[in-house]
Write the structure tokens for this entry.
Amino acid sequence: MRKQLTCTFALLLSPLAALAQTDSISLRGVEVTAVALNRNVTGAHPTQSLTAKQLRQLGLDHVADAVKHFAGVSVKDYGGIGGMKTVSIHSLGAQHTAVVYDGVALSNTQAGQIDIGRYDTDNLASISMSVADDDQLMISARQYVSAGVLTLTTERPHFADGQWQTLRVGVGAGSFGLVSPSLRWWVKPFERTAFSLSAKMTRADGIYPYTLRNGNTSSRQRRYNTDITAWQAEANAYHTFADGSELAMKAYWYYSERGLPGTVILYANPSDERMWDEDFFAQMAYRRSLGARLRLQTRLKYTHSWNQYRDWGSQYTDGVQTDRDRQDEGYASATLGWLAAEGLQFAVAQDLSYNRLNNNVYVNTQYDVPRPSRWTSISAVAMKAQWGRMKLQANTAYTYAAERVSEGDRPADKRRLTPSVALSYRLLSSAPIYIRALYKHSFRVPTFNDLYYRRLGNIHLKPEKARQWSLGLTWETHTSRLRYLTITADGYYHDVTDKIVAFPSTYVWRMVNYGKVEILGADFTLGAQVDLARQWSVSGSASATWQHAVDKTNRTQQTYNNQLPYTPRWSGSGSLAMVTPWLTLGYTVVMQGSRYSLGQNKPEYRMPAFWDHGISLSRELTLGKVRLALSGKVSNLTNEQYSIIQYYPMPGRQYTVSAMIHW
């Protein structure tokens, strides 16, 4: 398995050298433009990315599928088209990973994790994942306190000469009743103003077959209550002022109704649980230069989230249980950057947010609804310097969080200072070989669920703290035919203290600061692109991750020194894209080694390794002023039966076709 992990191919694209002629009498001058090096090679922080072009070539239609191709990243997938999907970096947990959409972080104070399964790649210009911090300074203070950052960037409207609007209409269909029409409209009513509007509907019955094993026997079953109907719409506005400042605004809406299939239990009836979700947010980002050395960027955002859970059964007094939750957030952020000297930059960032949760949770027919609210202030100071071959980046952030409740006791205020430092050094002036190292202290404030959820909640929880160390080596080269060849290797050690876990206490379970975790690992990436001939090229990528992530809480417990649940020792991915004048062929593979569903690493809890292969074909035709893009994809090509989460079987072989018309 380890040998197979090292055999798949390459990543990212770079421009080649360009030639230009001068107007001299009979002499021709030659201008040579150097190839831009990959940011994952030169940066002090490991950063991996996929562009819109790469996403299309590989047939990666969803953010969750794309993120699986980043080294060191794990996605918990509960199966099915409507199943929840969360992202974690280096096994630190989804709550330690910030998801940033066009410069502003998405939030969920109730659960602390973002469901990336609801975000498609249709309108994205790029997806990137950074360990610790981003190499950019003009970011929000909220990003400085996260252990990792997943960044989604929307594709901005662009037009050909003389064009002021474009329209794209598409439809996709596939296995398990999938139908997904979409619409996108770009318009430029004024010279400095552009708008984009997009909408999409996804509908699927989600019924797929799987194999149910019981000892030495097995039977074919069908997965029910996995249907989903989802609507989403997004509007963006961009304006550039005469002084060069820029304003970007976004409004996003999502609504879905879906079934919750639950775990597979022998001889049990299918689940009847249903979930309704609605999310809306509106955000604004404004940036301008204040003279030659100062830059200012401000952000405002309002978020509203609503969900309803319903279950039927005789265990409920009225035969049905309905839970409703509503979250609201107001958020403001400002970052001021200063170019102090050539190669020396500073930035100061300040974030302020207000979160509120309201629900109808009750205990013993008596309402016990704390209705918590939280004020959070994050202040950050950062610097970035370059001296010769060395780059240095450092920051420190101070977080203060205070809460109020309408019923019961409130938790103590939370305060924390979290420093970070990273450096990159070019070993040879004649070759782009870099060594990089980083240290970061990050933490997460307990979520509202951790603090208040029914009788599980514990208002005395302390923040969960993580310390990250990393050391890596990177290299890139290129020739006339070889666009680029990139190799990176990063080793890391992380430790997590005051880990928040559910722990049995007397007659009930309680959330407590009990856990301590140590994570030792290594990430490897390989990327290459080769130009075979005119309009012929092959590009590929490979990534592999080794992790020894163990529980170090209590020597007397059976889980001590055992691998964390759902954490394989080996995992990896690969991709290959061949571009020809007529057709683009894409191939992807994602693998996870064996792992355990519980903290006790016993044979009965062992989950087998799996490989998920996929292929895609795409073709773009030009018919006058109309472009037609056709694509087809087969996922889980080998029809392998596997689960990422125990008792949540993933779908087998799936087919998807789509067509898009551009005017």
